[in-house]
Amino acid sequence: MGSLLSRVLQALMIKKGEKMTFGDWETFEKLMETLKAEHQKPFEMNYDKFTVNCERNDIAGMPCFILSPKEKAAGSCALFFHGGAYAMEITPQHWQLLDKLVRLSGVTMWVPVYPLVPGSSVDDALPGVLEVYKAFCEASADDKRFIMGDSAGGGLAMTLAQQAAKNNLPMPSELILISPWLDLSMTNPLIEKINPADATLDPYGLRICGEMWAGDRDIKDPIPSPLFGDLNLDCKINIFTGTRDILNGDAKALRSRMKSSAGQSHITRNRDFRTTTFCGRFPKQRKPLKRSADYCRRKNFEIYNQTLTLKDVGVF
Q1: 262 alpha-carbon distance from chain centroid
Q2: Which of 21, 85, 122, 268 has a 20 to 30 A CA-CA distance from 208?
Q3: Between β-strands 174-178 and 236-242, what pairing exists: parallel, antiparallel or unpaired?
């Protein structure tokens, strides 16, 4: 059972109607109209409390922010894609998370601000993402290169790794996926079961965002939905997921598909964990944050190969 604080917060979020944003058509439609207007404006940094260095370097017309520790860097580099249903810009909470990760791990973090829906699709975003990745590879060592992402950003991170393999680009040494959205069709049967317990996400609005992100592609095309792409990647995949997140089913499906491929994966499950709580404000959410920092800090992860096995993931 989760902590009392987590369960109280869950109940309060549901009572406040957090899910209304994606579960009510009128509310969702207004949100899309607002976002469409916002996406036409140049991106402006929305966070001013960094405890690490932050520099902007636009690549292929895409804003890209590079966060680096003020103390000696660890030598590792991570490329992070933010979540938000491929519709919402990176939030102050994301910057807070990344600031903590850089400070805890010593990693240098690249954060591209990629095109979003409504107005853009995966085919609009992917060319620029690939250019950012090429520049990122030139600035990072082969054995200390990570791709990370939360929710929709986790899906884009997986798509990028698959495209890197397809186009013979250098591979990351590690993928770190935080509650990744890997199947935009939202047809996983576990979604309906978990939906009442998820305080923020609703499959109705997510499915519409997924259709817009897919653009002219089928929603189960592996470009927008990387769960159906090549999972035999030459890198390890670390997944953080929680039992109160409707995207939990995608993590389970990924593990199931990877068991039949040559890919390597590890899954960390937290009963109270959701993408929106990953910044580690409460004790139950600090373990995933610290473990991500450890992944970025270490050159290899044999200690985790020994201590974190699929048997540890009770409900999976």
Answers
A1: 23
A2: 268
A3: parallel
d(CA 173, CA 161): 10
Cβ burial of 299 (10 Å; 0-12, 13-18, 19+) is: exposed
Per residue in 126-163, pLDDT tens? Answer: 999 999 999 999 999 888 899 999 999 999 999 999 99
pTM of the model: 0.83
Confidence of residue 1 (pLDDT cuts 50, 70, 90): very low
What lies within 8 Å, CB to CB, of 117 at 6+ separation is 35, 86, 87, 209, 212, 213
Contact predicate 171/48, CB 8 Å? no
Between helix 122-138 and helix 152-166 the angle, nearest 10°, is 70
Q: Mapped to the 3 state alphabet, what secondary structure does 122-153 carry?
A: HHHHHHHHHHHHHHHHHCCCHHHEEEEEECHH
Domains identified in the chain and CATH numbers: 4-312 (3.40.50.1820)
Residue type, 175: L
d(CA 242, CA 302): 24
Residue 19 is predicted with a pLDDT of: 65
Whole-number Å distance between alpha carbons of 43 and 56: 11
Q: Above pLDDT 90, what percent of the chain? A: 57
- Nearest-angstrom CA–CA distance, 22 and 3: 27
Q: Tokens 């929680």 map to which residue?
A: 242
Alpha carbon of 34 to those of 2, 89, 115, 208: distances in Å? Answer: 36, 12, 15, 16
Which pLDDT tens digit goes with each residue over 216-249? 999 999 999 999 999 989 888 988 888 888 999 9
Q: How far is CA 279 from each of CA 72, 81, 92, 93, 256, rounded to the nearest angstrom?
A: 23, 15, 11, 7, 28
Angle between helices 203-214 and 25-39 (to 10 degrees): 40
Q: Are 93 and 126 in contact (CB under 8 A)?
A: no
